[in-house]
């Protein structure tokens, strides 16, 4: 159930805030944890307790809002001149929205030609000053670091320490919704901040006796952008999952620690596996996520096939963004040509194959 209390206020005792921190909120957090009812059996594991954390139901349609509410609130508290970020799309939408709410100027650097249209539209309409850079995300982030220092701007990418602190609240919610921590958490990995943040949250609640245990953290990069799996930065990452098209993750080391400490792993999945999972989530469970989100389910399927987890385990797959962020991917996967039918019952029965 959604709370009318801002996320920062709900979890203030676990966050770096004080009574003097202005809370910039759009009603973020408190997203549903939905049990999969059809997929476990379809995957051949009917005893699997599978849940999806629907982070695409945050105000701007992605998990980024959890960290951004804190980053912008702290920027406002510090008297920031303006904020800046590099983005593959979701960060820009979130930063632009919360900056608009806070009355701050927001500068966004995007890799030209590699941002889903829905995300670009959001950033522009929220009033951000958007600049397309002739380079990939990693190039844009390097420029952001340089410009921020020279111009005294506040960076709100996940290198901002408040971003991951806000994002760890999703782990708190999962524990509260399940009544315990799951056995496994499956999550997409791009810039690698989210897996790091969830691990912080699960560890904290376990230390406080609120979680019972901590889950194995299983993160998945797209194969064409799998820098962590390759063990080296990639200068030309490529994947259909644009939200995780990152060749040099900013939170690389913390993500590796999260996987290692939890008994999990960071692996990769192919674009084909991602798109297959993307369609399965929609057609089996009625959930529309963006392609990058489906890396979590694609990873789970890969693990199940390899016999890497028990068939009766409790698993949460994090779906990081809403499918409406990238409608072109849905249309390309469906490959349906809509034809106009004459407005007559007999013609409609024929089109519906109902004679």
Tell me what you see in this structure.
The protein contains 15 helices and 10 strands. The protein has helices at residues 7-10, 39-42, 64-77, 90-102, 117-125, 137-151, 161-167, 169-178, 193-207, 227-230, 252-262, 271-285, 295-305, 327-334, 345-351; strands at 33-35, 49-54, 83-86, 106-111, 129-133, 154-155, 184-188, 216-222, 265-269, 314-319. Helix 3 packs parallel to helix 4 (90-102), helix 7 (161-167) packs across helix 9 (193-207) and helix 12 packs across helix 13. It has 355 residues and is of the alpha/beta class. It is 41% helix and 14% strand.
Could you tell me the number of beta strands? 10
- What is the tally of helical segments? 15
What is the succession of H and E elements?
Answer: HEHEHEHEHEHEHHEHEHHEHHEHH
Helix content percent band: 40-55%
Tell me the radius of gyration.
Answer: 20 Å
| Major sheet attributes | 6 strands, mixed
Mean pLDDT metric:
94
Shape, per Cα inertia axes: globular
Oligomer: single chain
Strand order of the largest sheet: 1-2-10-7-8-9
Point out poorly predicted stretches. Answer: none
Distance between the termini: 45 Å
Structural class: alpha/beta
Please report which band the strand proportion falls in: under 5%, 5-15%, 15-25%, 25-35%, 35-45% or over 45%.
5-15%
